[in-house]
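::Encoded backbone::
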Amino acid sequence: MSESQTMKVAVVGVCASGKTTLVSALRQFGIDAVDVAQEHSLVPHMWQVITRPDVLIYLDASHDTVRARWPYRGPVDWVDEQQRRLRHARAHADLVISVDQLTPQQVLARVLNALEAIDRRDV
């Protein structure tokens, strides 16, 4: 991307995967990032329509991780339903990160490294 262009980043994932935390951190670095509530939508390509991102990031979290982060959220099958709703986004993601064993800082570092590599490819 040229200096006059800003890379638009969309982040998707199940509830409690760390989307809000990642988007907030990316914005602190001046990156145009948005948390897409794709997991709540029945429209599989909503992430494309709403954001038209240059880069799509999928945060993958296991049932155990979601339960540890958000213990009172209801039956386990709601995670399965969110994952089903996110299938299209995951298939089109530029970067998929399993957050299960990572701190928010480690997720951010991986994303920043990937965005830097993507930006270098576009030059």
